[in-house]
Write a structure and sequence with these properties.
four-stranded mixed beta sheet; alpha/beta; four-stranded parallel beta sheet; about 325 residues; 10 helices
Length: about 325
């Protein structure tokens, strides 16, 4: 037995951090298992650095998100959107800084955190989870607990334990596409502004035409047009799509390589033909693809399109959310 806890949280992304910190603050012994070297999940490891907390009239999401923002602010690791709170995008944060903020929160709450350790097979007794097995550097070991929270993002623990789940849309089983986030360095922001919006619009037309000819990779048209007008060295770009099965490790490897090759193709064109980009180079990429959708655990209630579009309220709600 590697560790014993009241609550075992599998997955150290934003959801897992919130679950672990909340449980620990309520007096539980908590163990958090995270497969990557740091916590934060998509927010840190995939560079998904924007928060959307407002319905454009008021702030809707508070809680540990607000607390994280307060802790990051003195270090300059987070900044408010200029339109705050009258835009959905309320904050932009530095992923490297948020790694530190969230590790501090977990440590101060008393959470026992294991990074570089994925939750493996569940141990079931009489239909209840009693432990989860992990392959450590010293061999297989168990983490035991009374309550297990699946925050893996892929529903790994729930699926292995036999819980029902859905995957993909009914028509063809495909899930939403993924994105590789990236940052560039060496952008001449003054030159970009001096030639905007004409240069950006011309480049978008050029990219569209080359793509139609099969000579340029796919891109998110709306987002790319936006970045062409105002991007600088601080920008983390969200415009590079790939699509596939997030449960297939070999396919995910291929898609990650494909995404990075597409980024090289973007930059080769921009350096040649886009004002302000002659010296631009790749500064960083997410070391994981930004996965939007995977398994959906079948619960007592299913959030559906009608609920979202109708903003339906629920008497048993435990939190608020908003999306544009």
């Amino acid at each position: 037995v590697l560790a014993e806890a009241d609550v075992v949280v599998c997955g150290g992304g934003c959801a897992g951090i919130a679950a672990a910190v909340s449980a620990a603050r309520h007096g539980c012994r908590v163990v958090l298992l995270e497969r990557w070297p740091t916590v934060g999940g998509m927010a840190t490891n995939a560079l998904v650095n924007g928060w959307h907390r407002s319905d454009r009239e008021k702030m809707v999401i508070y809680g540990l998100v607000e607390e994280s923002a307060r802790l990051a602010e003195p270090q300059g690791w987070i900044r408010r959107d200029p339109q705050y709170p009258h835009a959905h995008e309320t904050h932009w944060f530095e992923p490297e800084g948020m790694r530190i903020v969230w590790h501090r929160m977990l440590e101060q709450a008393g959470v026992r955190t294991f990074c570089n350790l994925a939750a493996g097979d569940p141990v079931l007794e009489a239909g209840r989870l009693r432990a989860v097995l992990c392959d450590t550097k010293c061999g297989r070991a168990a983490v035991t607990g009374a309550i297990f929270i699946d925050a893996t993002g892929d529903g790994d623990l729930a699926a292995k334990a036999g819980a029902e789940f859905h995957f993909g849309r009914p028509a063809d089983g495909r899930v939403q596409g993924m994105t590789l986030m990236f940052g560039l360095h060496g952008i001449d922001a003054a030159a970009v502004r001096a030639h905007a919006p004409q240069a950006g619009e011309a480049m978008m037309q050029r990219m569209r035409e080359l793509n139609r000819q099969g000579a340029f990779p796919p891109f998110n048209d709306g987002n790319a047009a936006h970045y062409m007008q105002w991007a600088d060295d601080r920008t983390l770009w969200n415009m590079l799509p790939v699509a596939g099965n997030p449960l297939d490790e070999e396919e995910m490897t291929r898609l990650t390589v494909l995404a990075r090759e597409r980024l090289v193709a973007y930059l080769e064109l921009w350096r040649r033909e886009l004002p302000g980009y002659a010296q631009a180079r790749i500064d960083r990429t997410g070391f994981a693809l930004g996965v939007r959708e995977s398994r959906r655990i079948r619960g007592r209630k299913t959030l559906d399109a009608d609920m979202v579009l109708g903003a339906r309220k629920h008497p048993d709600a435990v939190g608020h959310g908003v999306w544009m």
